[in-house]
Amino acid sequence: KVLNKGFHHLTCRLTGKPSFYVHRGSGIPLLGNGAFGLVDRNTNHIEVKPITGCNVACVFCSVTDEKRVAEIVVEMEYLVEETEKLCNQKDCDDIEIFLNAHGEPTLYADLEPLIKNLSKIPQIKRISMITNGTLLTPQKLDALKAAGLTQLNLSLNSLKKDKSKEIMGKTYTLTTVLRLMNHAVNTIPLVISPVWVPKLNDDDMEDMCKWVADHRDHPFPPKIVIQNFLEYKYGSNPGKQRSWDDFYAELERLEKTYNIPLRPKNEDFKFSKTKSIPKPFKKGD
User: Fold this and answer.
1) Residue 124 to residues 34, 97, 109, 148, Cα–Cα distance (Å)
2) Within the chain, what is the greatest distance between any pair of CA atoms?
3) Most CB within 10 Å of its CB: which of 53, 55, 112, 254?
4) Which helix (H) or strand (E) holds 88?
5) Is 135 exposed, middle or buried (0-12, 13-18, 19+ CB in 10 A)?
6) pLDDT-based confidence at residue 1 (cuts at 50, 70, 90)
7) Which residues pair with 192 in a beta bridge?
8) 254 SS3 class
9) How far apart are CA 84 and CA 82, in angstroms?
10) pLDDT at residue 9 in the model
C-alpha cells in the first residue's frame, strides 16, 4: 500500500516532472508505445527504452523533452523478462539490442545490470547503445563492456567547444566526451552519429570525418554515420530539412575527401526480417 502510494507521486529530479514507474505489477505493457519499453519492427533489432529524460538539450531533438508532460522509468527485471519473451517469439537466434532511449540511457540507475541480464538471453548476440557520452567515464565504459555492451554509438555533433554547447546545450561537456572517444578506440567498437543540420554544423562534418580517418589505425577503428536532420511534428526544428539527393551528394564528396565509408549498407547493420509478432491491442485501446 505504501509502495503504491509512492509510485503514484514520483518526480524526476532532473526535469522536475511527475514520473511513472512502470513495473511488473503496474498493468502497463512494454510493447505499444514508442517512448518506453520495447519497440519491435519485425526485424532482428529490438529497441530497448528504459527511461525518458535527458541531461542535455539538443536544438534539433526529435522528442523534445520540454514538450513531454511526464517522465517514465521502467523496472529493470520487467524489461528483461519482456525482452526475453519477445526474443522467444521471434524465431531468430541473431538478435541485436539497441538501447535507444527517448532521452539519455546512462541516466538509468540499473543500466549495468540491465545490459548484463540482457546479454544472458541466448538469442541476443549484440548490444549497442546510443548516448551523448557526457555521463560516461572510461571506467564506466569498461564496466558496461564487461557487462555485455558490444558497441558504443555516440551522439556527437561538433568537435568545437562553443559550437557543441550551442547545439547540445550549456551542460554539454566536450572534454569528457573526447576523453571517452580516445579511450573507446582502444576498447570497443565506436560509431559517431552526428545530426547534420543545414547552416548550423556544416563545417563540423569535415572535422568529425577527419577525426575518424585519423584514428583508423587503432585497435577499434571508429566509424561515422551522419544523419540527415529531419523535421518532426513534436520535435525542435532549428532549420529546414535538406533533400535526400543533396544529402547523399554531400556524403559522397566527404567519402572521397577522407577515404572513409559514409553510406552504410544493410549488411553493415546485420539487419534481417523476422516473423511478425501478433499485436496485443489496437490504436486507441
Assistant:
1) 21, 7, 22, 10
2) 64
3) 53
4) helix 76-89
5) middle
6) confident
7) 154, 224
8) helix
9) 5
10) 83
pLDDT tens digits, one per residue of 21-72: 999 988 899 998 889 999 999 999 999 999 998 999 888 876 666 677 889 9
Residue labelled with grid coordinates 519477445: 86
Query: Which one, of 4, 67, 82, 96, lies nearest residue 36 by Cα?
Result: 82
Q: Residue 174 and residue 155: Cα distance in Å, rounded? A: 11
Q: Scanning the structure block, which residue is given the C-alpha cell 577499434?
A: 220
Which residue shows C-alpha cell 538509468?
A: 108
- Residue pair 200/164 in contact (Cβ under 8 Å)? The answer is no
Query: Does residue 130 contact residue 104 with C-beta atoms inside 8 Å?
Result: no
Select from 118, 152, 117 the least CA-distant residue to 136.
152
Q: Which residues of 105-117 are buried (b: 16+ CB within 10 A; e: fewer)?
A: bbbbebbbebbbb
